[in-house]
């Protein structure tokens, strides 16, 4: 089942549940159908980023910071860390733990890194607005089209600065969360785990860059190569775009 960026909640949860085969915000994949389960109002998955951070009182979602720390502590050398799927039932269980507790007291030290990576990807995929935002989506795609993946040219200093300024246009909470995520993905790409910037771009491109609800899924699919390229570029240039 294809998850289209134009699908809104609660339909988005239904599609994700189908594609991932796990329960998400009351929707659980059961063979050929998805049936809603009674759950409390979502606190983490599918919740607006600004709203979530305001309620939690943190600068970056706890689920993001905890998952990243756990992966860097004991999972960064796992081959294909963000490409290999974890056990569905365990991914589902960890998602529910974050929903119930908010994540502050969750201990991930004994959780397999692939489970943690799956949960982080699922959280990012369920954000009502992706980290690159709908508003700036056309500008990021336009930039990526000028620097296609088959280009042998390297970005000159002016182009690097242009991309840096574009990223800095993001709203504060989105910028801070993206900073933490991309700097993490840069560390992942530098490790011996078969996760190069281009491979990470394939995994995270369509998640971090999505069109809004009034644009078709077909249109989004046409941009997939550019979504992938943009994430690859930003990971490669992470030290320049997100300086300490």
Task: Tell me about this structure.
The protein has 244 residues and is mainly alpha-helical. The chain contains twelve helices and two strands; from the N terminus they run αββααααααααααα. It folds into two domains: 42-128, Rho GTPase activation protein (Phosphatidylinositol 3-kinase, Chain A); 129-243, Rho GTPase activation protein (Phosphatidylinositol 3-kinase, Chain A), CATH 1.10.555. The protein is 55% helix and 3% strand. Helix 3 packs parallel to helix 8 (172-190), helix 4 (88-101) crosses helix 5 (113-126) and helix 9 (197-208) packs across helix 11 (224-236). The longest helix is centred in the C-terminal third of the chain and has 19 residues, at 172-190. The relative contact order is 0.15.
Topology of helices and strands:
Blueprint: H1 11-20, E1 27-30, E2 33-36, H2 49-56, H3 62-74, H4 88-101, H5 113-126, H6 137-146, H7 157-167, H8 172-190, H9 197-208, H10 217-222, H11 224-236, H12 238-241
Antiparallel strand pairs: 1-2
Helix pairs in contact: 3-5, 3-8, 4-5, 6-11, 9-11
Amount of beta strand:
under 5%
Assign the structural class, choosing from mainly alpha, mainly beta, alpha/beta, alpha+beta, or little secondary structure.
mainly alpha
List the secondary-structure elements in sequence, H or E.
HEEHHHHHHHHHHH
**CATH third-tier fold name of the largest domain:** Phosphatidylinositol 3-kinase, Chain A
Largest sheet: 2 strands, antiparallel
Number of strands: 2
CATH homology group of the largest domain: Rho GTPase activation protein
From the coordinates shown, what is the CATH architecture of the largest domain? Orthogonal Bundle
Give the class-level CATH name of the largest domain. Mainly Alpha
Radius of gyration: 17 Å
Number of helices, where a helix is a run of at least 4 consecutive DSSP H or I residues: 12
The end-to-end distance, rounded to whole angstroms, is 40 Å
- Domain count: the total is 2
Strand order of the largest sheet: 1-2
Can you give the helix content as a percent range? Answer: 40-55%
Shape: globular
Mean pLDDT: 84
Low-confidence stretches: 1-20, 27-38
